[in-house]
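Can you give me the bound-state structure? Components:
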Amino acid sequence: MFSVSHKTAFVVDHCPYMAESCRQLIECDMLTKSRSQGVIPLAPVSKSLWTCAIECSMEYCRILFDVYPTWKLVNYIVSDSEVHILNSWKQEDQNTHELMAALAAVGPPNPRQDPECCSVLHGLVAAVESLCKITEYQHESRTTLMDTADRVANRGRIICLTNAKSDTHVRMLEDCVLETIQEQNKRAAGSDRLMPIQQCELVLVHIYPQGEETLVSDRQKKELSSMLSSEVHSVRAGRYLASKLNVLVQQHFDLASTTITNIPMKPTLNVFEQEEQHANTSANYDVELLHHRDAHMEFIKSGDLHMAGSTSRDSGLKETVTLKWCTPRTNSVELHYCTGAYRISPVDVNSRPSSCLTNFLLNGRSVLLEQPRKSGSKVISHMLSSHGGEIFLHVLNSTRSTLEDPPSISEGCGGRVTDYRITDFGEFMRENRLTPFPDSMIDAAGRTPVERAKSQLERYTRYWPMIISQTTIFNMQAVVPLANLIVKDTLTDEDVLTCQKTVYNLVDMERKSDPLPISTVGSRGKGPKRDEQYRIMWNELETLVKAHVGTSERHQRVLECISACRSKPPEEEERKKRGRKREDKEDKTEKNGKDTEEKGWTTDSERLKGVMEREKDEQSECEIIKDSPDSPEPLNKKPRLATEEQQPPEKSKGPVSLLTLWTNRITQANSRKHQEFAGRLSSVNNKAELYQHLKEENGMDVHENGKATR
Amino acid sequence: MPTAVLLDSSLSMTRPVSVEGSEEFQRKNLAVHGLTMLFEHMATNYRLEFTSLVSFSSLWEVLVPFTRDYNTLQEALNNLEDYDKTCLEAALQGVSNIVQQEWGTSCPCQVVLVTDGALGIGRGSLRHSLQTVKQRVEDKKFPLPFPFPSKLYVMCIANAEELQATDSMDNLEQLINLNGGEGQIYTMEGPLCLKSVQSMFGKLIDQAYSPFHAVLRCGNLTSDVQVFPRPEPVTIDEEVDPMPRTVQTEGDEIGTGATDDTEEETSTNQMAGKSPNFCVLLHGSLKVEGMVALVQLGPDWFGMLYSQADSKKKSNLMMSLFEPGSEPLPWLGRISQLGPASDAAENPYGEDDSKSPFPIQPKHKRSYAQNVTVWIKASGLQTDVQKILRNARKLPEKTQTFYKELNRLRKAALAFGFWELLKSMAELLERECTLLSDSAHPDAAFQLSHAAQQLKLASSGDSKYAAYEHNITPMLTDFSGGGGAHRI
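Here's the bound-state model for the whole set.
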């Protein structure tokens, strides 16, 4: 995390000799033929060593900031008779615009300054001091780790662009850096805001004008001490320096290069005027991009790097993988099997082909990239696409996927259920969508935004039946205002009023005997009677509101309103008698908490079972009342047999329940009113064998489905 | 994660196992028995995983290419033939090739080597391979470590004592080390019999083929899920705190957002049944709404759930794991800073769902999005100069563009300390002025000499004129409609 590349200090020599020309002439007076008569062309311009150093180091930073917008920091230092520190390690200082403005303020070196008082040494010392300074990231890691804070490392790199006098001069600079590190480390040991340097890489780049012999020799990386390694690059100014720094930025930050080839540039894609173009406008262009080398992992591992069209250029140091542009056929967004996405930076950022490509991508289009193979089939291995103004090279899986041919979700658990509340849950998801909040946004309870999101999900799902036939209230437009409000964390008085209005509206509906959207699934006939429907509806509404009653006093008021208003039809004497007992139990189960309730509306099959075992015990009782829309009338009559069958185990469990007492009494009372069936009287364990007489008559077995009854 | 089974079919596998009484077994029979057990386990618990069967002796042969059809694998086990001697290196190379051909080098794969531990003699033996491992030329490298993430499980139809009596155990251990320590050697305990082979394969199953069961939770709505392929623990290369991260079995769905990128895919699948299941509901709604759900897998580890459809109308709930970290996708920002949209002062998605707070734009634009100036190649500089001249010839119509380009060049020249260019540009503009035709608009001459003068002033380095943020503004003339402005 805190490798050498976490901190890069640039030290650029600003001494008078850097004002010297690099002796590479640039013709900027390009006269067009028609205008050239009688005009003397302007003398070509040439950059100074300083200008070369600045623009190449800026290019280094540009690529770095494009690929690593965070975590990789640059501190830019200019050195002459004094030190000019152009920025800090702060993340907000990490952009080329700020640096350019600061460089403009420094201006080019003054050739008339006394060379004796100028030296790059000042800058090197400042760079070491700067490497000791703690970055925001190091600080954050140290504070979060506390006990293991000493494990946060401090490493860095110094890139020094200078014009050295000789190899001895170079030695002197290296010695100075080493001494300063030792000195500064002692100082840093006693400070909170400083950290000793554990490892430092010094990269000395000696720049000399074209056509001159170099006075400094190249040297490979060498360990000067356990803390300091140093390497020397002797480079001619101009494009040689530019390609050297391009190679260095790739080495320092694990970058690799991809060249997109065959980019068709139709006139419609042009961003610049036609004038400077060649006659043929539909030529194919190449664009080179840099990105993290992991984007080539598949090629590197499979040894395909060369097969994939990799070519070496510029002294063999620089390799690029060539991938072919595939013109996007449609604009449709496809999800690809993507195994990684890496930020890119174009090598020639403002060349026409580059800006055509990047603008194309920034406008929201994607480009698939094909791996040119010598043999046969074409393979799409990468995709370029932008997200939020940043372009990423996506690595696509080009081999067989282990995820092919997945089973359909309908083959799994719950896959056969057809009445899921898909639309309602879609609405639920939209209500619970996430959005970014500023870093400081924590609420009064100290919760982060994501914690608030989780608690909202918890509230919104306290009562949320998954299928349509499990619910009445969520199928009713009239309940919507209350259902939307009751899940909220806080209610206003106005909200409470809206809820109350909703309840009054329901009361009104009941009075008018408006039909309810009660599901008839699982019940025979035309379903429950109207008053039974309303009872089910009120119960469900209460369940919903009770789940939120603890949230606030206003939520409580909504429940009170429902309890006060809900119907207890007085006209049905018999129902009232039955109902009272039932409601007692109901209250009990509801107090038992959510667990029971959840079980209550879990599954279809359980519900059916519940219907069968209707008066078995409290829980199944509760199930039916809670959510079963089934009419109790036919059920009361029908499954008597089953009921009695269930009783013995009930009895054996211990004290007789009220329900059992009641059913026993009713059974007794009823039995007095009619003559018992002969079958039931002679039954064994409540089972009576049918057609016993046949057996007796034929004197043989009747099991064979009538065959034996000849 | 696919499995390649590498089964030793050398003659030594036909050695009989001494069993008291009953029938006589060959080591091969024990191997087949163990593999049958493994295949049966996979057919029930891992039916979405691919397995291949390769047999080897001095040569190797793919008996069954990667398949989910465990009957075919079983059938192949029942029709094994016996061959000559053991040459493990060639076989490992073979497995390496078939895995790469099928799945590439990024897909993790388990290799199960079943052998009696008699690893050959002379050339081609494992001993010989290991002795020469350091003297290989580039294209004859030892196949380990495999180029793909892998685990090498060696199932020995032999007990540890037997292997330690020769150097077999050492050689096998060296093999695992060559694979970066990724793998394990299993030996049989006690006498070689059906029971001990079962217990050995049982251990392998527990270690490498235990199904991944988890609970998907969205508030109070939950669902038991099984995840294919099994998400493996990840060790992040973080020097401060290198610790493996495992996927917690409680998946917390924390809300939904809209994004379109994936890192690593696994498919979530459910056990059979007919009662309503939250996964099916979630999948249906995600599919209809075209949304994805964010899922938390552990502290600072996230993923997303979405509906994945193959070409054949079948779709399932897919979970993609992001790289562990608090900000896995830059365009979503820090996950901990994502909160309910309803908490925002204004609906970030717009009243009619026409907007989105994503993607989050970075604070600074990238270089390719901000028209930077780079003059490293001469052509870059020439293009910029020509652009100014082209606009200069079209004054006053192009006054705005002319000054825009001029200021861009001025800024870059000042930053690069390239004052010479400013002087040259000034001269070029002055010459343009003299080349103006008689029919040219009079304003053109004023603007050109004004611009040239400003550039010259900037090139002097005088802080009054050379300030970076300063822009040269068009001169107000009678012609440019500035009414009452000063004239030179």
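A couple of observations. Residues 27-45 of chain B form the longest helix (19 residues). Chain B touches chain A through 142 residues (CB under 8 Å).
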